[in-house]
């Protein structure tokens, strides 16, 4: 548990973890109620203990995705959760404990000798898309377009990167342009979704996209009463929650179609 969470008197509600990855979670009861505890059960493909290191998490969640990208498959990693649950820390980390994205840079440049690599970094704020790498003081939102069944961002800058250092500098530049704000839950809360994409072009065909890895730091889902949001912060929270709800619907549909291939939902 983080120092901030401890200061807010948050409690560890995980009680028992079975090998089936079903996680019983308890909620302390209201002192004025006869109910002393409510228990819910959640199912996961994998659960990581608090003592899991950033490196262990990367190796068990993302390393295989990079390997597949080098074979021509697209990859996606995203962090989802409530505000102040550790999403940005998991994706970006710290200088002492690098997150998934810096570890991806390190691994990719060790293995991608036969590839030309470019990168882009976008922010989705209040349902508008912005290029975090764009130069100039005026923020201009970009259009989402569709071609051949694929969605892309018009006029998005895609920069070549040749080393870990260049990639890290690009990430730091984008982070400075990201929208953040203070809430009761987090003094530096992300108010937007951010997508860092690495585009791989094989040297045998340097003009055709071979594969793409997208790593996403989603804004946290929020309850206005808990975060104390009002005005602009409340408007941001409404947009964030709406977009996360749509993402959840997409994932539910994908999962349904996997389980019921003969009765696919659009």
From TrEMBL:
PROSITE patterns: KINESIN_MOTOR_2
Entry keyword annotation includes ATP-binding: yes
Record-level GO cellular component terms: kinesin complex; microtubule; nucleus
Record domain Kinesin motor: where: 1-266
Matching Gene3D superfamilies: Kinesin motor domain (3.40.850.10)
Record: residues binding ATP: 81-88
Family (UniProt): Belongs to the TRAFAC class myosin-kinesin ATPase superfamily. Kinesin family.
Protein name (record): Kinesin motor domain-containing protein
